[in-house]
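Reader question, answered in our methods column.
A reader sent in the components of a multi-part assembly and asked whether the whole thing could be modeled at once rather than chain by chain. We filled in our standard form and ran it. Here is what they sent:
COMPLEX SIZE: two components
ENTRIES:
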Amino acid sequence: MSAVTERPAATPTDPATPAPRLGGLLRAELHRFRSRRFIQVLVGLTLMGFVLATVIGLLNLGAPSASDLAAARAEAEQFVAEQEDFREQCLQDPGRPDGVSAEEYCGPPLTLEDIGGEASFLDTEPFDLAGSATDGALAVAALSAALAFLIGATWIGAEWSTRSIVALLFWVPRRMTVIGTKVGVLVLAAALFGVLTQAAWLAMAGVLRAFVGVDEALPDGFWSTLLQTQGRGVLLTVFAALLGFGLANLVRNTGAALGIAFVYVVVVETAVRALRPRWDPFLLTTNALGLVQDGGLTLQYWDDQAPVTDGPQLPVEYFVGHLQAGLLLTAVTVVVVGAGAVLFSRRDLH
Amino acid sequence: MPAVQMTGVSKSYRRRGRPPQKALDDLDLLVENGGVHGFLGPNGSGKTTTIRVLLGLVSADGAPDIRLLDRPVPAGLPDVIGAVGALVETPLFFPGFSGRLNLQLLAEAAGVSRARVEECLEIVDLTDRARDRFKGYSLGMKQRLGIAAALLKSPRLLVLDEPSNGLDPAGIRDVRELIRRLGRDGRTTVLLSSHLLAEIQQVCDSVSILARGRCVAAGPVADVLARGSTGDVRIRVPDAGAAAAVLAGAGFAVSPPEVPDGRTLLVHRVSAPGEITRALARQDHFLEELTPLTPDLESAFLAITGDPASAEAPPAGGVPTAPGGRA
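And here is the structure of the entire assembly that came back:
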């Protein structure tokens, strides 16, 4: 049955008809990303956090004066002397078990070096760039990865909650093009965010070194090691953003994706480390650390299924290198993002 | 070339632990180019599913023949989507963005100029509120923004699903006027899904009626209305009681109107109204009025879709018209 009306027929192809273009979609998605208030606030708060941390560092770190050093040395020496008094009392203790020498029973004398010297008794320590830069880059990578996960999840989760992604399909019906463009924008944004946070860390460390730092020459290979660690930190940030995106796309909800991530990190990984320590080398946070940490990560765990030997049971060592960590994180990311994209391309959308 | 052509389209939704739900059942639908085509059906009849299948949001069972502006769906959708504007159920926009930004993002994705965004905001009378966030809009303003988005592409096919939802009377009038204008421009075909039967009757040139996932009636609105006609006429005479006796004696089915006034009668299933005149005149009763009752679209719709209430409803609810005319 049909409804027929007498009207002039429109031409099959109309030159004025707008057509979706990948460039236009990419521009629109970049515009959408940078217009998101939540993302703007998150980036702003992150930068404010760095400023605040710098101020706190400036107030709590500092080069000690000669009198500070003298006071700290006096306190350290007093501590060592007190410990030596206790040791003397121990040596004269008549209740020492038979067959145990006084040296074995009371231990060796304590020295100033054993307690870290006078530095341990300083109220203010100077900022040591050589000793802190790489560890700081690692911590910043962890922070930016967590925030990138949130950004990735909300980037697609908000689209699902408002269903604006369905409206977008009225304009660009190729679903893989839509999801691929969103992934591309996220990768770009996460990489920029990772670079921004690592740059913020360098700036913060530079300020601390200039005002409250140790003025010593940096060791050979310092910058190379630091920049490589930071580069891998940026890579981790991108992985985290994509995992957040993939999870939220699978469950179509930002909150659910965050919940799954929380349960995985807090419950699943803790349980695995306690019950199946041999699986630890394949956990995501282990590999995240192995990816970013300079030289990779050496794990030690007790394997209750290892063959029993005559000697003392030694922990098993497992080295998680950058390559293994990178490959494992890539595989997991591809599976999570790919599964979400394939489902999106096939699902009925309401 | 039809704007929309669907042949033998079925769609079943799988349900956990229960048999699949059939939303579309071998549906045939043809919407010719130009004008306004109404899309009617009771709740759950498959209207929105049909629109979703048409726009590639939902996949039909098997591989039926679906064509949109002469391109197969879903494979050919990217070729014609630039000529199709749609508002399906509620407008889907980002609540934190302004109305203008929401439209600009869509326009950027499709290569539509910013000037066109401003034109469409003007058309739906939202220019003054374009900077406000979408979440602060009233229901009617949201609906108008949805219509603006559907118009952005200057579409050759405009699909509107319940466009009057949430609009105030003035807004409804404006939207209907806009739809009429688009339907008359010779370039645009409007597919209007609405539960407001009066709206369909006022605005549409043709109509398709769905029931239980099938198209049960289609054609020009006047033809569909005639299909629901029962052949009833209303007569007015000086003495209704005497006239009723005469007509009953002549074999007519007669009943008083809902509110008897002693002068009006309803005569049912009349194939030739002239016979009424003749029968009454023979007994010296002369008509003051004889009006064929054409049912309104609501009556026709209920009769066609098999609503049990309509089977019992007297045709008195019909709208008197000149034969062949429209209410």
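What stands out: Residues 308-327 of chain B have pLDDT under 50 and may be disordered. Chain B touches chain A through 63 residues (CB under 8 Å).
Send us your own complexes using the same form.
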